[in-house]
Specification:
66% of the residues lie in helices and 8% in strands. The chain is of the alpha/beta class and 562 residues long. It has two domains: 309 residues, ABC transporter transmembrane region fold; 215 residues, 3-Layer(aba) Sandwich (Rossmann fold), CATH 3.40.50.300. A six-stranded mixed sheet has the order 6-9-10-3-11-12, with helices on both faces. It has a four-stranded antiparallel sheet with strand order 2-1-4-5, with helices on one face. Strand 11 and strand 12 form a beta hairpin. Helix 2 packs parallel to helix 5, helix 15 crosses helix 17 and helix 15 crosses helix 18. The protein is elongated, with a radius of gyration of 34 Å. The mean pLDDT is 85. Pfam families: ABC_membrane, ABC_tran. This is ABC transporter. It is found in: Cell membrane. One of its GO terms (cellular component) is plasma membrane.
């Protein structure tokens, strides 16, 4: 088997869900066509078995030993071919399923990384989770079913030709009976897909709520809201359960119809064929063949129904994937070259000088966050970086040179050492220096495996203050040209905050750093403080100078009234 996933998934066609599925099929056309060939041969061999079996019965009736041995040998050969083609069909079916599914995973993961902060603003957590949980499987299934679906159609056509050439009335009965069965089952597919869509949507909403509850569990417990949100989660969970039962009801009707309707056809074919055999219009062997064909056709018919179901699900899933892939990042870049230098936000007047530790204190915390986002090119604004407009620089270069580290950043699952040293280039001494500057040595020392300890999802084994210190260490290890820290000490105690402020100044000595904070302990250890009020610079100077000259600044940092 070829290795999966592909090194480069390519650029998808996202003009419509059907075009995306067709693009997927073309990307794996060789494996798809080979699998269809094996599946078609597999079905054809099975379609020939009833005819050979009938010939053998007629040979027994005629007491023709030689003919019986011949048809027995042919039947054995068909069995061997069926076994080989069945194995190869299954192998290619799995390969095509995995290819389409993994390709979709690669595309969505790559695009999610490209979107960055845009993704959670445009889509809920639950919708993204639904794509990973079910949609990629449905897209893979739409490729997988093409093999058996195509072969089933060929098998039905082959059987119809054999039956018509043997007995026109029986052939016509099967010819018209099979499509009628498909039409009878068809009306159940629409309500099934409608209920499946509602179930997926409710599941996505429930996933979003559960993620919100887990993320804010400590806060909910602190304000006594845990039971309220648990009750809401329970109610939504029951709605998901009822929706799932609704899906199961239609599925059970569909399964029952797929058994009852072919059973009626078998009864009709057998009864009519028996009357023809009694009248010597067909041989007993042909009667056995007709009965066996009627039973055999249940398989291809169920496969065709399954094909319609899976292709519809694949189309719905592709629509959701295309919706994600069609989202464009809020911020894009140009092709100019960055020289570096002074970072300036023209709207607010905030100027970050190279090689200095600057603090940004805002009367309203949201103002500091908005300015940090503009300076890091996470939102639009008239920002210059040296002589260049930040909007004209390649976005990848902006991300590499300007790092905005806020408290919305997450710790990911994996080894702690790898989580801190995201570039994989830091030495053991550099990691220790970053941990020291962030006052996070005690966190690592308390872990049984130290830096080799495994971090749980979102770092939930760490407290809020510990997560904040580890995130600060990670930002320091990244060592960007410009580091913008948003409230880096808001969740730590005063003693740790004082040590972090002192060590941060030394760790970033001679490097461009902006700290958005109103903590006097941090402000007192910076080279310059910029005080922002109503989104614009109101005063500049050292912390102590501003305490004396700006009553509004003093009120902000001392939590007083101005």
């Amino acid at each position: 088997m070829r290795p999966l996933p592909e090194a480069d998934p390519g650029m998808p066609d996202i003009r419509s869900p059907l075009r995306y599925l067709w693009w997927n099929a073309r990307r794996q056309s060789r494996a798809l066509l080979t699998g269809i060939a094996f599946a078609t041969l597999w079905w054809l061999v099975q379609a020939l078995v009833p005819a050979v079996l009938g010939k053998g019965v007629d040979a027994v009736r005629a007491q023709d030993t030689r003919a019986l041995l011949t048809w027995s040998a042919i039947l054995l050969g068909l069995g061997l071919v069926q076994a080989v083609t069945g194995i190869m069909r299954h192998r290619f079916a799995v390969f095509n399923w995995l290819s389409a599914a993994y390709r979709t995973v690669q595309l969505t993961a790559r695009h999610a990384a490209r979107l960055g902060a845009t993704l959670p603003k445009r889509l809920s957590t639950g919708e993204v989770v639904s794509v990973g949980n079910s949609d990629i499987a449905h897209i893979g299934g739409s490729m997988d079913i093409l093999l058996r679906g195509t072969g089933a159609i060929v098998a039905i056509v082959t059987v119809t030709v054999i039956l018509l050439s043997t007995s026109l009335p029986l052939g016509l009965l099967v010819l018209f009976g099979v499509p009628l069965m498909a039409l009878a089952v068809g009306p159940l597919l629409k309500p099934l897909h409608r209920r499946q869509k509602r179930h997926r949507d409710l599941t996505g909403d429930l996933s979003t709520r559960s993620a919100d509850i887990v993320a804010g569990l400590r806060v909910l417990r602190g304000i006594g809201g845990e039971q309220v949100f648990a009750g809401r989660y329970r109610e939504e969970s029951q709605r998901v359960r009822h929706a799932g039962v609704g899906v199961a009801k239609v599925e059970s009707l569909l399964e029952g119809a797929q058994i009852v309707l072919p059973g009626l056809l078998i009864a009709l074919v057998t009864g009519l064929g028996a009357s023809f055999a009694i009248a010597d219009e067909i041989t007993p062997g042909q009667l056995v063949s007709f009965y066996t064909y009627a039973v055999f056709l249940i398989g291809p018919m169920r496969t065709i129904t399954e094909t319609a179901d899976r292709l519809t699900k694949g189309h719905v899933a592709a629509r959701r994937v295309v919706r994600i892939l069609a989202i464009e990042p809020e911020m894009t870049g140009g092709t100019d070259e960055a020289v570096g230098g002074v970072l300036r936000d023209s709207y607010s007047g905030v100027t970050v000088l190279p090689g200095r530790l600057t603090a940004l204190a805002a009367g309203t915390p949201e103002d500091a966050t908005v300015i940090a986002d503009r300076l890091g090119r996470y939102s639009a604004g008239d920002v210059t970086f040296g002589p260049a407009d930040l909007a004209t620089l390649p976005i990848d270069e902006v991300r590499a040179r300007i790092l905005v580290a806020d408290n919305g950043a997450r710790l990911f699952t994996g080894r702690l050492r790898d989580e801190l040293d995201v570039r994989g280039t830091a030495s053991a001494e550099q990691i220790q220096q970053a941990l020291y500057a962030a006052c996070a040595e005690d966190i690592v020392e308390a872990l049984p495996d130290g830096l080799d300890a495994q971090v749980a999802e979102a770092g939930r084994e760490f407290s809020g203050g510990q997560q904040q210190r580890l995130r600060l260490a990670r930002a320091l290890l990244a060592d960007p040209e410009v580091l913008i820290l948003v409230e880096p000490t808001s969740a730590v105690d005063a003693h740790s905050e004082a040590r972090i402020a002192e060590r941060l100044a030394k760790a970033r000595a001679g490097k461009t750093t902006l700290v958005c904070t109103t903590s006097p302990l941090v402000l007192d250890r910076t080279d310059q403080v910029i005080y922002v009020r109503d989104g614009r610079v109101h005063a500049e100077g050292t912390h102590r100078d501003l305490l004396d000259t700006s009553p509004a600044y003093a009120a902000t940092v001392t939590r007083g009234e101005d």
